Amino acid sequence: MSRWLRHPLVWGSISLGLLTLIAWRSRAWEVLDRLGDVDLRPLLVAIALNALTAFAWAARSSDLLAGTGRHVPIRALIPMTAFANTINNVTPGSVGELVRLYLLRAHHSVDYTTGSAIVVVERVVAIALLGASAVIVWGGWLVGLWPPLTIGALMIVGLLPCLVYRMGLRPSGMLRFAPLGPLIGRQRWATVDRTLRRVDAAVADLLSNPRRAVAFAGWTAVVFGTYTSQLMLVAAAIGRDIDPAVAWGALGLGIMAGVLSLLPFGLGSADLVLVALLGVAGIPAAEAAAIAFGYRIVSTLPLGLAGVASYAFLSARLPHGQAGEAARAAGAGLRDDS
Question: What is the Cα–Cα distance from 63 to 214, expressed in whole angstroms?
């Protein structure tokens, strides 16, 4: 199995498929017609910022893994997180994280319980922070709230996961109460329940640690801040200035719409919300659409290409004898890690 996955025809074909999906969703061939006469300098800066996004993703993962006693260098996690985020964008419901569980196990011997805890924190908690911050920033701009109050509210939101877990509340433990027993059988559900208990305990250990929680919120803020800067740079390229609060709020709410849709890249839902909110901020519809499209070109497309390259890199270097677990990656977290 490992030899099959490492074969160039296999990972090359999958890479080509990923490239096709990315090109189709970003509609790269329309770039000249949609953006028209633009200043390329802000766009080049926006594209360069993707390096910061990839680094922040990996640094966030590395810090969380260190909190569990697994020390994986940032440079080793850059291709892994880039690939996982690409798969998340082209498959429903963030399926890429299931692949990342396998890659962490295969390349760095990270057990599935620990990997699952990292994924829960990075996906569920990060998305919650994005949604809450977008609502606060957009609402603050809409009502003209004094900026220091908005910043204070954002700081509280960033610390909230830590406060919740230190109070003894365990939101991640709610996963155990899903009514899946009758569907999968009592014996299998007992195994699932034991695994979810271990994942919940690992998540609690991470989020109840103030230093880890602050670092996680900080790196997540870097990611969202980079997205916001890219949107503002795209707007600047067509001669339009956007308030940072408008950019953060509109983009964050658009991303949330895409996440909740469970469709690849949001399949237009994220773009629709973004364009609508930019319109509320006074940007003409045609320009708002061009900005949304430009953001796809400078952010979604380059990060997607980086993910495809990362897949090829990781697949060609799968350790011998471990790749046979790939087909079981989705269910591995439901088994004992022995």
Answer: 11
